[in-house]
Amino acid sequence: MAEIRAKICGLRSLADIAVAAAAGAAYAGFVFFPKSPRYLTPDAARELALAAPVGLAKVALTVDADDAELDAIVETVPLDMLQLHGHESPDRVAEIRTRYGLPVMKALGVADEGDLAAILDYSTVADQLLIDARPPRNAVLPGGNGLSFDWRLVAGRRWLRPWMLAGGLTPENVAEAILLTGARQVDVSSGVESTPGVKDPARIRAFIAAACI
């Protein structure tokens, strides 16, 4: 079986970084969305990013951020990737990628087959795609809601860019999700928390162990 790469998103402490790295995470996600319980300021994220060992990719999650917000993040935090989790258009994705010279991952919400067409539009401008559950209509958060979607919708699909499966993944279901979809990358946030915004070290270790079996 090909290597499975796990992203632990919403890390907020040096202990989180240490646990994720030791467990074998490929990506560490920092959330720059003030409404999220996982929100970090650029200065706080900088401390964590500097503590991340070589090989742990540092990803900034933003939601419809303007250039001023992105400038503040990129100038402060040593990053490996930008994750766009809002309503950014393909043109905006391409613009951000050019402006900052960093790889860009575009998150796309899926609830039914009609949502899959947009994935093709973004696969020509983003470096990676994050296929997530579409949030409920009145949701405050664009992700990290602990919701999954019908994984059969993306089973066996291939796009022009590498993609990552997200949405409601947990240590208990990630192996099944990988088996059903063929995903080679998985993302988790609320599924490894004891309370919103507080990561559980045992669940982080269990998630990565289950994903990599």
Give an account of the 3D structure.
It is globular and about 40 Å long. Strand 9 and strand 10 (198-199) form a beta hairpin. The protein contains 7 helices and 10 strands. The protein has a single domain, classed as Aldolase class I (TIM Barrel, Alpha-Beta Barrel). 31% of the residues lie in helices and 21% in strands. The chain is of the alpha/beta class and 213 residues long.
Helices and strands, with pairings:
Elements: E1 5-9, H1 14-23, E2 27-31, H2 42-51, E3 57-62, H3 67-76, E4 81-84, H4 90-100, E5 104-110, H5 117-122, E6 128-133, E7 163-165, H6 174-181, E8 185-188, E9 193-195, E10 198-199, H7 201-211
Parallel strand pairs: 1-2, 1-8, 2-3, 3-4, 4-5, 5-6, 6-7
Antiparallel strand pairs: 9-10
Keywords, separated by commas or semicolons:
213 residues; alpha/beta; TIM Barrel; eight-stranded parallel beta sheet; two-stranded antiparallel sheet; 7 helices; 10 strands
Oligomer: single chain
Instruction: Write the CATH homologous superfamily.
Output: Aldolase class I
Helix/sheet category: alpha/beta
Largest sheet: 8 strands, parallel
Helix content: 25-40%
CATH architecture classification: Alpha-Beta Barrel
How do the SSEs run, as a string of H and E?
EHEHEHEHEHEEHEEEH
C-alpha Rg (nearest Å): 16 Å
**Number of discrete domains:** 1
Low-confidence stretches: none
Task: Give the structure's gist in a few sentences.
With 213 residues, this protein is of the alpha/beta class.
